[in-house]
# Entry
Amino acid sequence: MTLPFDVDAVRADFPILETEIDGRPLVYLDSGATSQKPRAVLDAERAFLETANSAVHRGAHTLAAEATELFEDARVSVAEFVGAEPEQLVWTSGATAGLNLVAGSLGYAGRLREGDEIVVTEAEHHANLIPWQELAARTGARLRHIPVLDDGMLDLHAAADLIGARTKVVAFPHVSNVLGIVNPVAKLVTLARGVGALTVLDACQSAPHLRLDLPASGVDLAVFSGHKIYGPYGIGALWGRDEVLDGLPPFTTGGSMITTVTLDKAEYLPAPQRFEAGTQPVSQAVALAAAVRWLGEHDLDAAHAHEARLETRLREGLRSIDGIRLLGDTDAAERIALQAFEVEGVHAHDVGQFLDSRGVAVRVGHHCAQPLHRRFGMTASVRASAAIHTTEDEIDTLLDAVSGVRGFFGVGA
# Structure
């Protein structure tokens, strides 16, 4: 049954939102870094550990069978959440692990050689940049990047020039974790497919806020993290097309991903198990499945419309405050309710401490995106990011606090 969207009812599912900071209600606007967890997620993980905790795919006793069934049922639920089949979903410890798996497997497979090219964007989270830097260094491939324009949009004219016959991989974020801009997936996929390049999508920031159908998106591989979609830490997933996963060798090896082992060699299970060596994040997978099921109980169209209103209120409100510079300030793109900004004359960390004293939790720093900050001539920014439980009053509380920052620090008086 789909529940009508009611933000107050949603908030009641999150125990942490009852917290107070120095006597003020917590206004949590750091969901882009990590989301809070509804009771359904907390209860699911605890119930598994209390009643079914056992190693999966390894035992014949009752608990082992039950744990394995719950683990694989979780794979089905999370795969459905992104429009995929369960055999296309590889459990990882998070998006970073998934991206390292892909880059490492491509290196093992010898798919890149000296003179080949890997194309990323100037807006990458470090997790979708450094693995490709390392792969390029090991193989002699060249790493190139699609520039970001002054308004935060990707330079698609430059992309068309960059993606060519030498391009083997095009990796990019679905949504920038700094700018909040939804990137043009279809256009980038078309460019990559035109030259036979593999596409890798970082869906960390889109998974909590947009309906995902990864097979229909056209990308070949995608990653996302559980802790950003109201799930637990230590769990994420790599999705891949059947033929792509089947063509990649294992990256991490050990137990549980093999069929036959001798003292001289090993034979491996098909995907996804051949990428899941060792002890798996079982309780976390069960809890992540609970998170996506919990999301699915709500009217997501109404929830996304609510978040769109929050995005407009956030960005327009910040625009109206003197001395505020927005990163990626454009009306020309689809966006999520996430915005990074600079307060003129006040360091981002000082802004963050001031807001925290008002009960408002935001992210400060470079957000694991130093090249993008350098592109905009800064080393750090303040980032506010909303979630399904965020209210318009909370956005107003942020805006009111931000409007007092420069005066508090004696700047611009």
Remarks:
- The chain has two domains: 7-30+299-404, 43-295.
- The mean pLDDT is 97.
